[in-house]
Amino acid sequence: MSKKKNNAGEAATYAAGGAAAGAGVAATVGNMGLAAAGTAVSVGAAPVVAAGAILGLAAFGLSKIFD
């Protein structure tokens, strides 16, 4: 039976990679906005970078499922 390890460093690497990808998307796309029902809200880089970090952690979780 194998022991599961707590790989905080590996998780941080995945999160940093996702954040970097999110920063790349934000830099490529530029300022974004969300418009609905006659109103609009500007979406800056910070939410896109945070979403990238979350997706990186999701990729880490998927990699641990198949580990």
SSE order and pairing:
Layout: H1 8-29, E1 32-36, E2 39-43, H2 45-65
Helix pairs in contact: 1-2
Stretches with pLDDT under 50, minimum 5 residues: none
Widest sheet: strand ordering: 1-2
Please tally the helical runs, counting DSSP H or I stretches of 4 or more residues: 2
SSE series: HEEH
Radius of gyration: 16 Å
Structural class: alpha+beta
- End-to-end separation in angstroms reads 13 Å
Overall pLDDT: 89
Helix-residue proportion: 55-70%
Dominant shape = elongated
Oligomer: single chain
Strand content: 5-15%
Number of β-strand runs:
2
Characterize the biggest β-sheet: 2 strands, antiparallel
Description:
The chain is α+β, with helices and mostly antiparallel strands and 67 residues long. Helix content is 64%, strand content 15%. The protein has 2 helices and 2 strands; from the N terminus they run αββα. It has helices spanning 8-29, 45-65, and strands at residues 32-36, 39-43. The chain has a two-stranded antiparallel ribbon with strand order 1-2. Strand 1 (32-36) and strand 2 (39-43) form a beta hairpin. Helix 1 (8-29) packs antiparallel against helix 2 (45-65). The longest helix has 22 residues, at 8-29. It is elongated, with a radius of gyration of 16 Å. The protein starts with 7 loop residues before the first helix and ends with a helix. The mean pLDDT is 89.
